[in-house]
Amino acid sequence: MLTACSTIGVAHEERIDACHSAPRSEQLSGTGTVPAVVMSYAADERVFGQGMPRRFVYKVKSGVVRTFTLLGDGRRQIDAFHFPDDVFGLELNDDHSLSAEAVAATQLLVFQRSLIDRAAENNCAMAQELLSLTGRTLERTRAQVVLSRRSAIERLANFLLNLGSRVGTETSVDLPMSRYDIADYLGLTIETVSRMLSELERIDAIVLTTTRHIVFRDRVKLTVLSNPPMG
Amino acid sequence: MLTACSTIGVAHEERIDACHSAPRSEQLSGTGTVPAVVMSYAADERVFGQGMPRRFVYKVKSGVVRTFTLLGDGRRQIDAFHFPDDVFGLELNDDHSLSAEAVAATQLLVFQRSLIDRAAENNCAMAQELLSLTGRTLERTRAQVVLSRRSAIERLANFLLNLGSRVGTETSVDLPMSRYDIADYLGLTIETVSRMLSELERIDAIVLTTTRHIVFRDRVKLTVLSNPPMG
DNA sequence: CGCTAGCTTGAATGACGTCAAAGCGAGTGG
DNA sequence: CCACTCGCTTTGACGTCATTCAAGCTAGCG
């Protein structure tokens, strides 16, 4: 009955509507619970699309999601990768200004936007939570602006360290995303990403055991390159 | 009694504390009023500094303010210019992550942060307003990330059009800020800004009647260059 | 074993930054 | 009123770094 038509960009929402499993009370963040259902997405499956009505808010249960903007010239700016416990789909307007896709097999908690909005109108704690989430997103986006002025190798070092702190161990990290994804996130080309990874390996900062698995060999070198802004 | 020591970065706040003029009820945004006092700032005078306790929230009454980050290597990333009716100094943390300075002679409405926070705890409408302001800031910051992938001339065309829509007329705009400010906002050097302005003049998109006054000669050319992202 | 998609590597191009010098304009003092 | 000066701006020559174009390579899979 439900054919594979994720490219149309609506099927996933029909699937959510058709999901008759009982919503469970789940935390969006911090305090307060809201009913939510769990949905599964295959790699590269669309979650929502730019310009579509913003009916749901999402929280990653497992897997990874990318949110991105498609530019006029066909290029793609990846806004953020969302890992377990991250909330996304929370915006100001009634329509999405970004698109979202699963990077790998992913499970999401799906909240009705109307329920969250209603909760925020009656309950200042919920409104504060939304403010806090948006504020944190703003901080990360500002950091991205600052990063975008730095060199390719610095951006990549910073990216690997951040990724490691989210989904890696002390000594290594598995890249859930392709070189294309990394390039579109950092504002580089896949060739440059590849070259800089090779360069990081050449200076013994990392080892690429496979194309998707990175071992941190010298965190200090990475940290110096990542060189966070300060006053 | 109060010596000129704005470089220390505290004098301005002492001045606010010492201001015994009766606070008037003022709108932060939309609905709801909060007591505020008016403060005047000279060109380049500091409003607050990175790392300082975040005691106030500001709204521009007249003039222009720049908020910026100082990077480890001494470079400066201007985060935003704030024009009349813009609110700034609203962040997530208890300390400022940005610095703020007047670009030109400026008057600000100064609100106590504690009053605003208290209002937001008891009054969901105020909390919603803060959320809306932060959301709008986030949108602008995202647009900056997207812009930072584009060429120098495109960034500049986009900047001039945005500036024109805020403080210009149909046909012209006065630049309140220096080439340094523009460069640090767009992530370019002053030389490149200057070259691109000359280039825009060469292709008859604008005319620079003085270094600070720009006449729009062909808005279409600017718009095509500015070429907003779309899906 | 060969195919394909994703990744890596190389060489040439181009955009912006850097360094250097000259131009311009507003304020100052003669 | 004019010459001088200082800071900002413009312009030029050149270097650097990321992109582009073009092969090759590798790993997963039929």
Give a structural overview.
The structure is a homodimer of 231-residue chains. Chain A is α+β, with helices and mostly antiparallel strands. The first copy, chain A, folds into 2 domains: 6-146, Jelly Rolls; 149-226, Winged helix-like DNA-binding domain superfamily/Winged helix DNA-binding domain (Arc Repressor Mutant, subunit A, Orthogonal Bundle). Helix content of chain A is 38%, strand content 26%. Chain A has 7 helices and 12 strands. The first copy, chain A, has helices spanning 11-18, 113-122, 124-147, 152-167, 179-186, 190-202, 219-226, and strands spanning 24-27, 33-41, 46-48, 56-62, 65-70, 76-82, 87-88, 99-102, 106-112, 172-174, 206-210, 213-216. In chain A, a hairpin with a 5-residue loop joins β5 and β6. In chain A, α2 packs across α3 and α4 (152-167) packs across α7. The longest helix of chain A has 24 residues, at 124-147. Chain A is elongated and about 55 Å long. The structure holds a DNA duplex (30 and 30 nucleotides).
What order do the helices and strands come in, and which of them pair?
Two copies of one chain form a homodimer.
Chain A: H1 11-18, E1 24-27, E2 33-41, E3 46-48, E4 56-62, E5 65-70, E6 76-82, E7 87-88, E8 99-102, E9 106-112, H2 113-122, H3 124-147, H4 152-167, E10 172-174, H5 179-186, H6 190-202, E11 206-210, E12 213-216, H7 219-226
Antiparallel strand pairs in A: 1-2, 2-9, 3-8, 4-7, 4-9, 5-6, 5-8, 10-12, 11-12
Chain A binds a DNA duplex (30 and 30 nucleotides) through helix 6.
